Structure formats: C-alpha cells, structure tokens
Amino acid sequence: MGFGASAWKVVPRDRWIGWTDRQRQERLHLIVNNARFLILPWVRCRNLASWALSQCARRLPFDWEGRYAYRPVLIETFVERQRFHGTCYKAANWRYLGETQGRGKLDRYWRHELPLKQILVYPLQADWREVLCS
C-alpha cells in the first residue's frame, strides 16, 4: 500500500464534502490519497484486501501524525473502472462518489485521454466534514 497527497480538484469529492475553494486550498492536506494497493494475483486469502484496507484506515492517522505532525481526516482512492471493480473498497465500507472525467492533473487542453476511474473515500473520524469545512 502506498499513500500520498490528495488530488487537487475532484468535482464529485469536493461537492460531497461541500467546501468552498478557499476551504479546499487550506485543508486539502487533511485528505490522503491511497495511491497504490497491490495484492499479487497468486495470493489467495478470503477477505484479505478488505481486511488490509480496514487495518490501514485504523493505523494511518497515527502513523501520519508521527511523520507529518497532523492527522488526516479522509482517505481517497481512484479505481480504474475498465480494469477493476473496487470490490474490496466497497467491502471495507468506502463510499463511492462517482467517476473522474478522464483528464488528469496535466490535461490543460481538455483532451480526456486518461481512463475513467471510480472515486471512493473513507472518513477517518466522525467529525471529518466539520474539520474540512470549518
């Protein structure tokens, strides 16, 4: 598993959170992106993926705080819909918010050349919306 900075702008996510552009600029660092998740295809263990996701979601705020001196309140991920179904995320209670536009952060000319991806999020604390929108 790999985690990193969240995506700058994601319309379905930003609409779901309900924050303003200013709030997004000030608090975007409180969202962490699950950029990599791989279980090799020959590994066969029922529920391993959803179990690993739930363990990471429990541990991540503490580890992140230890490294960066603050706790994130939300995790996001993007699942390429033509290749994967995102079943393990849904089984681990991640919330589906919609799909990307297929643009990516470097598409300044609206070419839509990237594959569409499902947007999924997982709150790390109960008051995440208050923290992001306050």
Using brief descriptors, characterize the structure shown.
134 residues, alpha+beta, Aminopeptidase, 5-stranded mixed beta sheet, 22% strand, globular
CATH class: Alpha Beta
CATH topology: Aminopeptidase
How many separate structural domains?
Answer: 1
Largest sheet: 5 strands, mixed
Classify the helix fraction into a percent range. 25-40%
The ordered string of helix (H) and strand (E) elements is EHHEHEHEEH
Return Rg in Å.
15 Å
Number of helices: 5
What's the CATH architecture?
Answer: 3-Layer(aba) Sandwich
What percent strand?
15-25%
Q: What is the typical, i.e. mean, pLDDT?
A: 90
Strand order, sheet with most strands: 1-2-3-5-4
Structural class: alpha+beta
Distance between the termini: 30 Å
pLDDT under 50 segments (min length 5)? none
Assign an overall shape. globular
Number of strands: 5
What does this structure look like?
The protein has helices at residues 11-17, 21-27, 48-68, 87-91, 128-133, and strands at 2-5, 31-36, 74-80, 95-99, 117-123. The protein is globular and about 45 Å long. The chain has 134 residues and is α+β, with helices and mostly antiparallel strands. A five-stranded mixed sheet has the order 1-2-3-5-4, covered by helices on one side. It is built from five helices and five strands, in the order βααβαβαββα.
Topology:
Elements: E1 2-5, H1 11-17, H2 21-27, E2 31-36, H3 48-68, E3 74-80, H4 87-91, E4 95-99, E5 117-123, H5 128-133
Parallel strand pairs: 2-3
Antiparallel strand pairs: 1-2, 3-5, 4-5
